[in-house]
Design the sequence.
């Protein structure tokens, strides 16, 4: 997750994320995106929002925000996180299928 002195709320959102309070972190990061739409480093807020959605298993949203961060700033970390998110989604879906099979047997 990324911080920026011009986007001070990111630190609060990261603190929430570290406490596994992903939904509250998502709200905080979304507020930053809405409050500072033209900030120079707004890509960091989109990245943080994408990661928080990813860890909340909201993969479609996560990809959208990670893609936006990457479009705003072509950073390898952003590209790598988009790839990691796809893998995490596949693993999560596989685990859910396995769990469902166990429940049905």
Sequence:
């Amino acid at each position: 997750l990324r911080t920026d002195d011009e986007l001070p709320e990111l630190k609060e959102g990261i603190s929430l994320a570290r406490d596994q309070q992903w939904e509250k972190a998502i709200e905080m990061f979304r507020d930053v995106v809405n409050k500072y739409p033209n900030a120079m480093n707004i890509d960091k807020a989109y990245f943080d929002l994408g990661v928080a959605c990813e860890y909340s298993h909201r993969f479609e949203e996560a990809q959208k925000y990670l893609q936006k961060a990457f479009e705003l700033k072509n950073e390898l970390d952003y590209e790598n996180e988009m790839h990691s998110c796809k893998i995490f989604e596949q693993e999560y879906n596989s685990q859910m299928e396995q769990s469902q099979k166990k429940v049905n047997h």
About this structure: The chain has a mean pLDDT of 96. Helices lie at 9-18, 22-35, 42-55, 59-72, 76-104. Residues 66 and 82 are 6 Å apart (CA to CA). The chain has five helices and no strands.
